[in-house]
Design goal:
The chain is mostly helical and 343 residues long. The protein folds into two domains: 127 residues, Fumarase/aspartase (N-terminal domain) (Fumarase C, Chain B, domain 1), CATH 1.10.275; 204 residues, Fumarase C, Chain A, domain 2 (Up-down Bundle). Helix content is 58%, strand content 8%. The protein contains twelve helices and six strands. It has a two-stranded antiparallel sheet with strand order 1-2. Strands 3-4 form a two-stranded antiparallel sheet. It is elongated.
Length: 343
Amino acid sequence: MSKIRIEYDSMGKVEVPNDVYYQAQTQRAQDNFQFSERCFPTPAIVALLDIKSAAAHANSQLGLLDNAMAAAIQQAITASKQLDFSTHFPLDLFQTGSGTSSNMNVNEVIASLASDILQGKVHPNDHVNMGQSSNDVVPAGIHISTVRHLKALLYPAINSLSDKLAFLADEHANLVKTGRTHLMDAMPITLGQELQCWRLQLNAAQAKLQQAELNLHHLPLGGTAVGTGVNCDPRFAKLACDYLQQQDQHPWQAAPVPALYMSSQDHTLAVASALKGLAITLMKIANDLRWMNSGPIAGLQEISITALQPGSSIMPGKVNPVIPEAVAMIAAEVIGNETTITI
């Protein structure tokens, strides 16, 4: 049997592997974008799939999409989430600036699966992408995947660390240690005071992040091409946002002016800047821990961080503060990400 099949798009025919659900436009992007080994992030793909489900629901409610086809699209989306993403959603993170390639990748995979379910032709653009454009769908996907990660992963982790710091601050409230300025001995403080300062820093960073997050609740769905709303029913955006809100219980709202969230990324930058602030707080804590743990003979050795692994290939018994070091590296990448979004 042939290992390839022929697909067509507006530019002509394309050879596509036989064992994938994507079609011509994804294959062209796969051929064009080979800049890194980093794929379009899985959470962003999942967000795009959920937007397509909301769109199918809205278009069905509006009588623009046949109910059977809408049902097939939604079944296909459920099936899509079970696929090997590296095989069926393989596109490089560095691609066309609007994310059109990944939007079409999602459209094509859903269309292929839905066509099998329906036993009839489901078109990636005319049906799956109805009432949408990469211009509005991809920014909305960024909002959705970011808010979901903040609420499901980051905020609980910050809260857990804050609670642990509060416990340790209370436990060591009366343990006196040397305070320092310029790394030189200064007035005595308690270890509890130091831990409490870290906790307050952490909580302040989270508060700024939660404030910045609020703008991401507005989704530019319905804006389609450059915010004009062309080819989209004016009722579509609210129906789609209501559906998304029912699915994950997050307060999604149709943006009053979709173009605002499409022509700039100020709101995304605000979140990135708040994440940078959190990263700087965590780096400060990590570096304080490394200083306090330094030694054990020629350093401060005020505290002992739990030994997790050998620290050297040639110096027996050496143990390093590996978690604070890893946290500092992650913080450096987050700081760099903010610069990337700025540009």
